[in-house]
Here is the input.
Amino acid sequence: MLGNNRSEIRRVFTEAWRKHRAGLEMTPLEALISAIIEQHPEYHGLIENPASALERDYLPEGGETNPFLHLGMHISLQEQVATNRPSGISALHRQLAAAVGDAHEAEHRLMECLGRTLWEAQSAGTVPDEQAYLECVRRLIPAWKRN
Here is the structure.
């Protein structure tokens, strides 16, 4: 959706944010990206400085979070919820959002399951296990909040 080149993908984020801040017309994808960036003020300074943001490595070994990966996971999760793919994720998201009191926080918690599922699939050389992913999400919802 965004490309295959790391710098190009990151440029989509920085350009969407630049357009947002300038009040320029944006594509639907740029509007989505800028809305997610808006919810993450901790990344604003970085994204407003594309020269340093585009090529920087974010290494988990150094305790760093990759802001572009984080923002991209929000996009993936919102797409999953909008399309209910895998089947059932929309209802689980609603339940989790109700349990934690905030849809954005629910996405942050879902990222743990999504990241684990993707890592396991990549490590095994298989497709992501949708049922394991959904079960992981179910475990995030307190039993008394489940439908």
User: Anything to note?
Assistant: The chain has two domains: 1-57, 84-147. The CA atoms of residues 37 and 44 lie 7 Å apart. The mean pLDDT is 92.
